[in-house]
Amino acid sequence: MVYQFEFRPYKRRFAQPLTTHHGVWHHREGIILRLIDVSGNIGWGEIAPISWFGSETLEQALDFCHQLPREITSEMIFSISDNLSACQFGFESAIAGLKSEEKELAATVLPCSGLLSAGEAALQQWQTLWQQGYRTFKWKIGVDAIATELAIFDTLCHSLPTSAKLRLDANGGLSYAQAELWLWTCDSMQAQLPIEIEFIEQPLPISEFAQMLELSISYTTAIALDESIATLQQLITCYEKGWREIFVIKPGIIGSPSRLRQFCQQHEIDAVFSSVFETAIGRQPALQLAAELSRKNRAVGFGIDHFFAQTATASPQNIWNSL
Ligand SMILES: [Mg+2]
Fold first, then answer.
1. Alpha carbons 199 and 207: distance in angstroms, whole number
2. Distance of CA 292 from the midpoint of ligand 1 (Å)
3. Does residue 194 or residue 31 have the better pLDDT?
4. How far is the CA of 1 from the centre of ligand 1 (A)?
5. Is the model's pLDDT at 20 over the cut of 90?
6. pLDDT, tens digit (0-9, with 9 covering 90-100), for 107-152
7. Known catalytic residues?
8. What are the chain's domains?
9. pTM
10. Which of 48, 119, 122, 192 is most buried, judging by how many CB atoms fall within 10 Å of its CB?
11. At 307, is the pLDDT very low, low, confident or very high (cuts 50, 70, 90)?
12. Percent of the chain surpassing pLDDT 70
């Protein structure tokens, strides 16, 4: 199959810069791509790399788009290198979008986790998100001093309604001793309070896989791998090395959706699907994968609109026209 190919770069400003253990993020930059088939059908795709998380850089993605001809084939798309995982997702989901308009609404009913900023801001922020209907929250840790964060955590756990679920995300920023302290604190909080601490995400750096495996066995509170499994190859490697707790899958950068689907159908992994701060164009196929492949009804990590000045809900054509 042959497609007419065009692409446009975009840059969206975060209303409040996103602070994680990796640093402060001010703008989300990416690429919107458009494929048109011989019958005139349009397929939209989005390339939204996060290089510090393990995908290609924006520059590498742009170089790849620039060197492609105006007419491209499915063979070219399905042979995009594994080093360009965000490109694999963007192009493959554009092809899938040409065929699957009837499936598009399947994903809209998934429960969503609202992202809380690091530090004390979370104590106010959850209340607004609760009013908007969120019942699962994710709070960034590993940013401030651990004693400060543990004190905020205590307040947060005592203020959240009993039906709330809380996830913590350290972005690989803890030492082994700090991870033990967090896990121990979560275990004892769970014993005292009715709220559910669902998991701690990526407590240690990617290089400390064996230690995370050990911690996952030693504490009741679950651990989710995120940075460790940024790409499909990394996910497969961690699975093969024995990881059986939670996998946070970011469809936007993991790579080929068809190969992800195949892996998830063959292996019953406990997956949480999560945003890469993409627009509505990348979000739709990412949520579609979540709807198909989530097994334990875990909330998806797409509650991030409040981090942007403008919402991402515009139609693909409107997003395209605005670039
Ligand atoms: Mg994470």
1. 20
2. 21
3. 31
4. 37
5. no
6. 457 899 999 999 999 999 999 999 999 999 999 999 999 999 999 9
7. 140, 250
8. 2-102+316-321 (3.30.390.10), 106-307 (3.20.20.120)
9. 0.93
10. 48
11. confident
12. 96
How far apart (Å, rounded) are the C-alpha atoms in residues 144 and 223? 21
DSSP run (H or E) holding 224: strand 223-225
Residue 194, both tokens: 């009715």
Closest residue by Cα to residue 83 from 64, 106, 65 = 64
Q: Which two tokens stand for residue 287?
A: 């949520």
* Residue 309 DSSP one-character state: S
Secondary structure tally for the chain: helices H, strands E? 12, 12
Structure tokens at 266: 């063959």
> What is the full DSSP assignment across 30-91?
EEEEEEE-TT--EEEEEE---GGGTS--HHHHHHHHHHS-SEEEHHHHHT--TT-HHHHHHH
Q: How many CB atoms lie within 10 A of CB 229?
A: 26
- Ligand 1 geometric centre to CA of 66 (Å): 31
**Separation of CA 169 and ligand 1 centre (Å):** 5
Per the CB < 8 A criterion, the answer to whether 82 and 54 are in contact is: no
